[in-house]
Amino acid sequence: MSHKLYKNLIGGEWVAAKTGKTFLNSSPANKNDVVGEFQSSGADDVDAAVKAAAEAFKTWRLVPAPKRAEILYRAGHLLEQRKEQYAKDMTREMGKVLAETRGDVQEAIDTAYYMAGEGRRLFGQTTPSELPNKFAMSVRMPVGVCGMIAPWNFPMAIPSWKLFPALVCGNTCVIKPAEDTPLSTFNLVQTLIDAGLPKGVVNIVTGFGPEAGAPLVEHPGVHAVSFTGSSEVGRLVGQVAAANFKPCSLEMGGKNAMIVLDDANLDLALDGAVWGAFGTTGQRCTATSRIILHKSIAAEFTEKLVARAKALKVGDGLDESVEMGPQVNEQQIETSTKYCEVAQQEGAKLLCGGKRLTEGAYANGTFFAPTVFSEVKPEMRIAQEEVFGPVVSLIECSSFDEALEIANSIKYGLSTALYSRNVNNAYRAIRDLEAGITYINAPTIGAEVHLPFGGVKQTGNGHREGGTGALDFYTTWKSVYVDYSDKLQRAQID
Ligand code: UN1
């Protein structure tokens, strides 16, 4: 089957990488289905893109924010019209089921409208001066050229979390999409171009981390870096950024716990567990990967969860009846396989799944069976390390206090959930769970775009995407003093 060749977008032109190399993007449901051929870029390509972004910044920063926002409104509208096609492209390139890829495009639409609204806000502060006849305020200024490295699990939503706030704030961008999902970034950026985005304001450089991602982080012309991905790579990104005093937003791993107490609505908790653990094939940084069960309901919950996991229809996400798609690539299958081995060596009990699916229609794809482990102890690796696959660990507890302690006994702190009908427990969970997100009677996944998204501990480095947190990252404060007294006034002295 013939496939399309995609080029980098630099200064508004589609150009081949100077490396002369390309790579193929194929479907995880069927490796023979080639989605497209993309540029395998290197440092020279990144350099050209950063220069184009720097040139575009000279004029883009001067476009009034409400006018910049109009482009986002139009892009949101176009995304609505293109939602179905872009969802199909996304399912084809990364595997998650159509209902979810539609949701992913919807998240970009939501972000477009939310951030477009910021065009007429971007609030700063006005505040009295300590001196007479003097006016004081703070205003948001764009940061400059922003380098963005995006993951494959939310191939349109997460690039939109990065691009849209950056743009409304007056920045220009160079984005490197994940090598597994470049097409969704192309679709997103094409929409911005069709909505009227000027040349060079967003540039795309495709390729792999070491060759294309590293030079983007290192480039002296990049003023801020936004990265979503593994903690391993995030640490490197953070180190390079720190050495250059570059603002750097890192959004990384999770080992998200759902606590189910003895007073929970068990059927509701089950629905939440299935969705939280196996939605997106477990490949969300917010995925439910630990379920902490009160011992009095553990047996019943476990039995029902295993039945639900076994009944899930796994297959090609383009088939509307499929409930769980493939994992994104061979590497993720290897990781899931490895953790299933490690868990069993540690003494966890495999209740279902635990292996790759290879028969029949699964033969050409990277499918992994929905997997449940019981008898997991909080300190086991399967309870501590991120798998990023359809693998969930059940841990028993005797009390709410113990559940909170287990939930917090990890290095990550992204999302958490409590199922309980006791309002006192709910408020304690909100206060005591060490995480950037806590859900009450809802699973660990499902963040909305107008609230801050991110985590504590090793999940992040203190920044937030979504909501006004994104504006804080993509702007820098300028404090302004206007003295209309016509004389020298000395702060702290006169
Ligand atoms: C991610 O897991 O990488 O909250 C992002 C959610 C989605 C975003 C997840 N809205 O699950």
Concise summary:
This protein has helices at residues 43-60, 65-94, 98-118, 157-168, 182-194, 209-218, 231-243, 266-278, 295-311, 330-346, 381-384, 400-408, 423-432, 467-474; strands spanning 8-10, 13-15, 22-27, 30-39, 125-128, 134-142, 145-149, 172-176, 202-204, 224-228, 248-251, 256-260, 288-294, 349-352, 356-357, 367-368, 371-374, 391-397, 412-413, 415-419, 437-440, 456-457, 475-483. The protein has 494 residues and is α/β, with parallel strands linked by helices.
Describe the structure in your own words.
The chain has 494 residues and is of the alpha/beta class. It has two domains: 265 residues, Aldehyde Dehydrogenase, Chain A, domain 1 (3-Layer(aba) Sandwich); 185 residues, Aldehyde Dehydrogenase, Chain A, domain 2. Helix content is 39%, strand content 22%. The chain contains 14 helices and 23 strands. The strands form seven sheets. The chain has a seven-stranded mixed beta sheet, sandwiched between helices. A hairpin with a 2-residue loop joins strand 1 and strand 2. The model has no long low-confidence stretch (mean pLDDT 98). Bound molecules: 2-aminohexanedioic acid (UN1).
